[in-house]
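hey
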């Protein structure tokens, strides 16, 4: 490789490193905000899911249409991804779980959240319901009301056997776990699994005391139907909201790590190219000196 080409590659690599460094700093700020939102919302989500689990396991809850198991029908997957890439395997790991579900041979339809999920459904020619993109990092419970309302309406039509959500569960800055959880029909055992995975491995939020399991059978007034018809949709909305919060924290954490790795690699490449450039330059200088010396000796002769 010519000296000019090596020098141009060094300049280009340095510029790339500056871009990835800036992206790392931006992602670090967004990561801290997203993690704080995800962590602070977890006690509320845990309490809501615990209520839902207990009511679903009660005598009145077991007979509700949103709780009764179904053996026939299609599966509906809510797939939560990011709108942007450059975040390691955050999106590919979620879509891999969808691939595994597709491999079962069952008829599957998707509610895509995030541009990557929309593109995946289009690429794989999967039937979709809506296309929810540009979800704000400051997502609120009300922001997912349209999604939850559509999911509940689809499930109420009894065309679907189950509704599941696929998302990234945030564990730590360097670790995220792709998860697939059933939303409808509501299963107390599945809600217990969600609750068990909702606590981070480290940090002050990991030390919160969990309430033990309760086997209480509730007396519901004014009527089980009216209370459950109001409560269950709200708590399903919270499950979707929780998944989006976890996904945002996972996305920004993974992107920060990916950009840091890219910045480190660019520094290593610049160092390697600089050594290569210096060696080539020294070789060229040595060759020129040798030619001058040889010419001078020839003139003496």
């Amino acid at each position: 490789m010519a000296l000019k080409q090596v020098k141009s590659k060094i300049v280009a690599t340095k510029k790339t490193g500056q871009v990835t460094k800036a992206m790392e700093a931006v992602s670090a700020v967004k990561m801290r905000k997203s993690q704080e939102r995800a962590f602070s919302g977890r006690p509320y989500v845990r309490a809501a899911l615990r209520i839902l689990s207990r009511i679903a396991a009660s005598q009145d809850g077991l007979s509700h249409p949103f709780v009764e198991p179904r053996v026939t029908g299609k599966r509906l997957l809510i797939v939560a991804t990011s709108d942007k890439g450059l975040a390691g395997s955050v999106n590919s790991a979620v879509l891999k779980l969808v691939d595994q579900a597709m491999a079962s041979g069952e008829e599957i339809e998707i509610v895509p959240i995030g541009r990557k999920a929309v593109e995946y459904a289009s690429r794989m020619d999967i039937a979709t319901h809506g296309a929810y993109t540009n979800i704000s990092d400051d997502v609120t419970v009300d922001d997912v009301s349209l999604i939850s309302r559509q999911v509940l309406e689809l499930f109420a039509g009894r065309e679907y056997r189950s509704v599941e959500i696929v998302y990234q569960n945030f564990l730590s800055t360097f670790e995220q776990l792709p998860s697939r959880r059933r939303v409808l029909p509501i299963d107390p055992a599945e809600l217990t699994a969600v609750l068990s995975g909702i606590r981070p491995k480290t940090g002050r939020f990991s030390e919160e005391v969990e309430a033990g399991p309760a086997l209480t059978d509730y007396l519901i007034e004014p009527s089980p139907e009216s209370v459950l018809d109001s409560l269950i949709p709200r708590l399903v909305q919270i499950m979707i909201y929780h998944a989006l919060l976890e996904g945002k924290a996972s996305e920004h954490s993974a992107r920060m790590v990916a950009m840091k790795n890219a910045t480190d690699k660019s520094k290593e490449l610049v160092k390697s190219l600089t050594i290569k450039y210096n060696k080539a330059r020294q070789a060229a200088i040595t060759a020129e000196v040798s030619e001058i010396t040889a010419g001078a000796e020839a003139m003496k002769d």
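Confidence is low (pLDDT under 50) at residues 204-215. The chain has six helices and four strands.
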